[in-house]
Specification:
Strand order of the largest sheet: 2-1-3-4-5
Shape: globular
Helix content: 40-55%
Order of helices and strands: HHEHEHEHEHEH
CATH class: Alpha Beta
Number of strands: 5
Number of helices: 7
CATH superfamily: Response regulator
Number of domains: 1
Length: 152
C-alpha cells in the first residue's frame, strides 16, 4: 500500500511539476460561461483571450441581435455588453434579456465608452448589474469584477 501511494505521489509530482497553482485551480473548477457582446473585434478578441486564460468558457457576439439569441441558447453565467452595437443597441439588448424568463437572472455588466450619468442610470434602471467604462478598467480589473459578481 505504501509503495503504491509513493508511486502515485511521484506520478502526480512528475505530471504537475511545471503547472502553477492557478492552472491547477482552473483545471478543477467548473468553468463559468461568459458571453461577450462587443462589436470591436480587437477588444472582443483581447477580452476573449484574457478571460479564457483566467479559466472562463467564452462565447462572443458582434451585435445585439446575436447577443440576445446567444444569451438564450448558451445560458451564460454572466454577459459583458457594450452599448453602441449594430442591429440592436446595448439598451435594447439588455431590455430583451431582462424581459425573457430564461435570461432575466443572468448578471449583465455593461462595458462601454459611454460615461454620462444618464447612461449609467438608464443601464441600471434596465437591470444591468454594474456599469464599467472601458477607458477606466484594465483587463485584470474586468476579470476581478466578473469574479466578484460570480462569487469565485
Amino acid at each position: 500500500m505504501v509503495i503504491l501511494l509513493n508511486s502515485f505521489k511521484r506520478l502526480i509530482i512528475e505530471q504537475y511539476s511545471n503547472v502553477t497553482i492557478k492552472q491547477l485551480k482552473l483545471n478543477f473548477m467548473e468553468k463559468k460561461k461568459i458571453l461577450i457582446v462587443e462589436d470591436d473585434s480587437v477588444l472582443q478578441k483581447a477580452l476573449q483571450e484574457f478571460l479564457s486564460d483566467e479559466g472562463f468558457e467564452i462565447y462572443s457576439a458582434l451585435d445585439g441581435e446575436e447577443g440576445v439569441q446567444m444569451g438564450k441558447d448558451k445560458k451564460p453565467d454572466l454577459i459583458l455588453l457594450d452599448i453602441i452595437l449594430p442591429k440592436k443597441d446595448g439598451y435594447e439588448t439588455l431590455k430583451e434579456l431582462k424581459a425573457d424568463e430564461s435570461t432575466k437572472k443572468i448578471p449583465v455588466v455593461l462595458l462601454t465608452n459611454l460615461g454620462s450619468l444618464n447612461d449609467v442610470e438608464k443601464a441600471l434602471a434596465l437591470g444591468a448589474t454594474t456599469y464599467l467604462i472601458k477607458a477606466d478598467y484594465k483587463l485584470e480589473e474586468v476579470s476581478n469584477k466578473i469574479k466578484e459578481i460570480l462569487k469565485i
